[in-house]
Amino acid sequence: MAYQESKQVQIRYYAALREERGLPAETVTTFAGSLRELYLELRDKHGFRLGCERLRVAVNDRFGNWDDELADSDRVVFIPPVSGG
Amino acid sequence: MFLLSKEAIEIEPLRRLFADARAGAVATFEGRVRNHNDGRPVLGLDYEAYEALAVEEAETIMKEATDRFGLYKACCVHRVGSLRVGDLAVWVGVSGAHRAEAFAACQYIIDAVKHRLPIWKRERYADGSVEWVNCQSGSRELSREHAH
Asked: What does the buried/exposed string (b/e) look like for A26-51 if buried means 16 or more CB atoms within 10 Å of the residue's CB?
């Protein structure tokens, strides 16, 4: 079998997610293949209330898609429902 | 032009940016913190932004509005930090040749800013509780919005 490489990614949290996590940012080592898998892994670990369907996701300061592949050193932000204005 | 501001927004310097002999219409919008939302008395708001992405997405919105409505200038400033009732939360200004395009562009920008920018507001209520708007897990909350 092929061995999967782990990835180190930087996560930043905002608003409701920051409060639920109790941290503004963290570095995570993961085997998640996609952004969705990463969120589900973290949600499972920290009990975030909102599911992917209520969030958006950004990678390296660009909006991304949940099924985008996660790469080593990615900077990821999960975006709770926005409420500016 | 889009800015996130930690300080109170000053309108007069912004208005001066719109001096333009071609512009027959300048439309502006002020979004202010109001004292109630969804039937609850509100004392103030805290705004938080994912700055890099908010600025980039906002510049996209300004360009869309400029192209679509043929504007001469479009500008938006959004507050971050702690605000009280009556404070200016967001300011939008646009200039064009005629009023119809200016009104429409102003509305287009404020609607897009509310729906697309990664900016969040936490309301502080008179009873001492706080809540991130739109972030509740129940379905009832999906339609809630602190609409200016």
From this structure: eebebebebbbbbbbebbeeeebebe
B126: Cα separation from own chain's centroid? 24
Interchain proximity B120–A12, CB inside 8 Å: no
| CATH assignment at residue B55 | 3.90.1170.40
* Complex prediction ipTM: 0.94
| Nearest-by-Cβ selection for A61 from B56, B90, B120 | B56
Task: Give the C-alpha separation, B135 to A20, whole Å.
Answer: 12
Sign of the Cα pseudo-torsion (A9, A21, B139, B119, in order): negative
**CA distance linking residue A76 with residue A38, whole number of Å:** 10
Q: Are A73 and A8 in contact (CB under 8 A)?
A: yes
Select from A16, A77, A79 the Cβ nearest to the Cβ of B132: A16
pLDDT in tens, chain A (85 residues): 567 789 999 999 999 999 999 999 999 999 999 999 999 999 999 999 999 999 999 999 999 999 999 999 999 999 999 999 9
What is the DSSP secondary structure assignment for residue B27, as one 8-state letter? E
The domain total for chain B is: 1
Residue B132 lies in a domain: no
**Residue B91's domain spans which residues?**
2-34+48-118
pTM, whole model, 2 decimals? 0.93
